[in-house]
Amino acid sequence: MIFRFVLCLIVTLGFAGCETPYKKSDKKKEEEKHDQNKDTSFQAFTGRLKLAARNRDLKVLGTMMATNFGFRWDRPETAPTDPSEVFAYWTQQNLWPELNSILLQGFAANDTNMSAPPQVVKDPGYNGYRAGVRIVSGSWKFAYFLPAPPPDELLPPPALQP
Q: N or C: which end of the chain has fewer CB within 10 A?
C-alpha cells in the first residue's frame, strides 16, 4: 500500500516537471499573432504601399493613409490629416527618397503596429525615420512616417482611434 502511494507520488511529481507541448505552441501562436509579415493581406498592403510611394501616386497613398496620419511630432495625434498637406511636407523636406528607403527595409511587430525598419523595434536608441502600418476597422492603414522623437522626449508613435 505504501509502495503504491510512493510510486504514484513519484510519477505525479515526474509529470509535473514535464513541459507540455501546448504551452510552447501557445507562446509561438501569440508571437505570430503580432508579427504579420507572413499574412497575405499585410504583404499585399505593403506591396501596394511601396509601389505607390515609389511612383508618388498621391491618390493611392491618400486612400491607404489613416485619417489621423502621423507625420510631425508637433502635430496633435487626434487631428484629421489632409493627405495633400502630408505630401507637400514630404516634397518640401525632400522625404520621398527616405520614405522609399524605409519601406524597402521590411517591417517588425511593435505592439499594435508593424514598424519599418525593423531596427525601430530591436534598437531603442534607433535615431532615424520610421514608418508604421496597423489594422484600423479590419483594414491595413499607413499610420505614420516620422523622424526620430525629439531628443528630450521619448514619444510613442501616434495612436489611431479605431
A: N
Q: What is the pLDDT of residues 43-59, one digit of tens each?
A: 999 999 999 999 999 99
Q: What is the pTM of this model?
A: 0.71
The alpha carbon torsion through 30, 33, 38, 39 (nearest 10 deg) reads: 150
> CA-to-CA distance for 156 and 127, rounded, in angstroms?
13
3 state DSSP class of 111: coil
Radius of gyration of the chain, Cα coordinates, nearest whole angstrom: 23
Element (H, E) at 119: helix 119-122
User: For position 161, what pLDDT does the model report?
Assistant: 46
CA-based nearest residue to 145, from 71, 82, 94, 74? 71
The CA-based angle 63-69-71, given to 5 degrees, is: 125
The three-state secondary structure class of 146 is strand
Q: Which three cell numbers stand for residue 119?
A: 531596427
